[in-house]
């Protein structure tokens, strides 16, 4: 075992030039940057898990409640029996439980698109777009007509 350890240590020392003092500074800088990036990533994940989102829900709490609801749904009990805080008379939690218990539905793409289409005004109003383009075209022609005459005169 000692021989294996010595050979591994020798291979590592051959790969890295720890004996060269100039390289030690580079390694220290690289390790410091790596440590700073790791701490920044941990802070970012921690803050995003603690702060509420735009709707006021906390992601960590939502994850725990969803996990408890899923476990309760699989075991056949409701989420209140699992002892999860924030569930019960809450309408959002009831909707979440219904989604957990719902069976998947197989529909065609055409059916899905038909059921999700929005009736009403389109995003692009063709009349307004055509009017705007007409005005821009007229202004461009007015501004370039004098320029074209000047270029033709030479």
TrEMBL record:
<feature type="compositionally biased region" description="Low complexity">
    <location>
        <begin position="81"/>
        <end position="94"/>
    </location>
</feature>
<keyword id="KW-1133">Transmembrane helix</keyword>
<keyword id="KW-0472">Membrane</keyword>
<keyword id="KW-0812">Transmembrane</keyword>
<feature type="transmembrane region" description="Helical">
    <location>
        <begin position="27"/>
        <end position="51"/>
    </location>
</feature>
<feature type="region of interest" description="Disordered">
    <location>
        <begin position="74"/>
        <end position="95"/>
    </location>
</feature>
<protein>
    <submittedName>
        <fullName>Uncharacterized protein</fullName>
    </submittedName>
</protein>
